[in-house]
Each structure stands twice: as C-alpha cells, then as structure tokens.
Design a protein that fits this description.
The chain contains 13 helices and seven strands. By secondary structure, it is of the alpha/beta class.
Length: 331
C-alpha cells in the first residue's frame, strides 16, 4: 500500500541501526511496534525476534497486523480466495455510499468493484459467523480484501477525497490477492488500543515508535478502509462520506510533547527507538530533551525520498526529500 509515513523504504536502515545498537542476536528479545500502521517494521523483525507486539488504534491497521504479525502458522485459504473471486457483486453499503452509480455517487470505486467489495465482505462475515473459518483465516481474508481494494481505489492514495473521474487503475477489476505472511515458531501479540494506554500494560526489550508527525489524522485519511474492515452501519458525513474517527494527541501541536513524554515515562523497555522527521510537530530539540531525561540518548539521521500523494493529479507517485531522525534511548 502507498501509505502516509510508510517505513518500507527505510526498513533496511531501521534494521541495521537497531541491530547496531542492541546486538545481532535478537532471538530472545521482545520487539514492540506501538504505532504499527501497515506493519512493515513489525514484519521486518518478526523472523528475527522471540515475539512481536504490534498495536495501532486504527481498526484497518489492526486487521493488517492481526494477519501479518498475529498469524504465525500456515493458514490454508486457497479455496476461500477462489470462491470470493468468483462471487457476483451485490449492491451493499460500500456500493451505495462510496461508488460510481451509488445513491451518493461518491467516486471512490467503480460500480463493479464496489459491488464486488460488498459481496466479498459479506461472505467473509457469513463464514465467520457460521464457524466455517476461524479468527486466523478471518483476518487473513480481511487483510487480503483491504489491500486488494486499495489497489483499485480511485484516490491519490489517501481517502480524504476521491478523484473526479475514474483513473486507469480504478477501472481494473478487483482481484483478491492473498495477503501472505511470514511463518514463525513463536506466537505474537496484536492490539487495537490507544498507545499511551497500552504502554502501561506491556513490557519487552525493544520499543519502536512511529507516531503521527503532523496534524494529519489517519482516521480521516483512511476512513474508508476502516469502514470496509468493520462493515458496520452509520450515516456517512459530507461530500467524502467520512465516519466518526479517533483523533490522536500526536497530531495536536499543543498536546504532542506532553503526550510523548508520558509515553516515554511509562515505557517498560530497555531500548527505545523513535522515528520522526524534520517536518514533525516536535522539533529535534523537543525530542532529545524529553528522551535524555530518561537515560542515554543518541541520534541517527538519514536522507531519503519519501512518497507524497498528489491530490490533484492521477500521477500520484511524486517524491519529496526529507530527513528522517532515529532517536535512540537506552533507558
């Protein structure tokens, strides 16, 4: 997925930096990805550590991480994937509220893809309710749907708005692609909680933090992925059909420093790594001042080309140069 703040391009940098700090043998360590997003960092460390703890307050993120991190043994869903791909579309909640020719005519998806999303989502829920599939298969299929639907969404990578006309990828037929995950011997933990509350209840060896950097709320920018994931009933608001969403204190300039310091204070982890960049609400000095008060602090930086969505053009793969800070605390 093209995802705001994704660490896909930085995964090698993060892996090398963390290993250089902690040591090369991570096999007996617990690694926590507290603001997990699409789970890229947790997936990187999953085969290397004893256990991954993944968390995100957004439900679509929980679904992705419940599959990619929470699932650790083989899930045999080939027949279910085939069955879902062969379903006829139905006019459900997604079609009526977020699709071409729906009653609201919001152009997030083509008519046919919207109907297909409804049909697949309803069938997954029916299988779960009847006991035909277990939790592992349920989240595997849901993660597959979220990622496959995202590939044909008529947006500039975020769901804060939709394009006025269907772009070429949005005209393609939705094909459900399996969200394959890494098998491991050990189990993992996945949560869907406020990070500052969860930190009081968990402990481990390595804590990786990648909170929102600015005023951009993920619940707003990815509201439709939450709606597909939850498939609940509500009245969509406004032109974009947004739902009620969680508002993070990390996106509020007047609250972010206090919220961050409380998190660091309550963290029961020896090694803490914070990803942040030079465009964030907290300055480099803000972060260093807070973290230095709780142990030995250091900083690594790297320049990279990050993805930047273009909301006005269909050519949405622009990049912008930024400086990524990796703040390190040995508590």
């Amino acid at each position: 997925m093209n995802y705001i703040g994704s660490k896909y391009r930085l995964s090698s940098f993060l892996k090398t930096s963390i290993i250089n700090t902690v040591g090369s043998d991570l096999s007996n360590l617990v690694f926590c990805d507290l603001f997990a997003g699409t789970g890229i960092v947790g997936r990187t460390f999953k085969p290397l550590v004893k256990q991954v703890i993944a968390n995100d307050v957004e439900y679509y993120s929980y679904v992705l991480n419940r599959n990619y991190i929470g699932n650790y043994a083989l899930v045999n869903c080939g027949e279910y994937i085939d069955s879902l791909n062969n379903l006829d579309g139905v006019e459900g909640f997604i079609f009526h509220n977020y699709c071409e020719n729906g009653k609201e005519n919001r152009l997030y998806f083509s008519a046919e893809n919207g109907k297909k999303i409804d049909a697949i989502r309803q069938q997954i829920e029916t299988w779960k309710a009847s006991g035909k599939i277990d939790d592992d298969a349920y989240y595997f299929l849901l993660a597959s749907l979220i990622e496959s639907a995202d590939k044909v969404a008529n947006t500039a990578s975020v769901y804060g708005s939709y394009l006025k006309k269907l772009k070429k990828p949005a005209k393609k037929e939705l094909i459900l692609i399996p969200a394959e995950f890494i098998n491991t011997k050990n189990t993992h933990q996945v949560y869907n909680e406020d990070s500052n509350e969860l930190i009081k209840k968990i402990k481990g060896d390595i804590l990786y933090l990648d909170p929102p950097y600015n005023a951009r709320q993920y619940g707003s920018n990815y509201h439709l992925l939450n709606t597909i994931s939850k498939y609940d009933t509500f009245i969509p608001k406004g032109k974009t059909g947004v739902r009620e969403y969680y508002r993070s204190h990390y996106c509020k300039k007047n609250e972010v420093k206090k919220t961050f310091e409380i998190l660091i204070k309550n963290a029961n982890f020896k090694h803490i790594f914070l990803s942040y960049n030079n465009e964030g609400l907290m300055t480099e000095n803000d972060v260093s001042t807070i973290m230095s008060a709780y142990g030995n602090y250091s900083l690594i930086t790297t320049n990279y080309k990050r993805f930047k969505a273009d909301k006005t053009e269909m050519k949405n793969h622009k990049t912008a140069s930024t400086v990524e800070y990796l703040h390190i605390l040995q508590k």
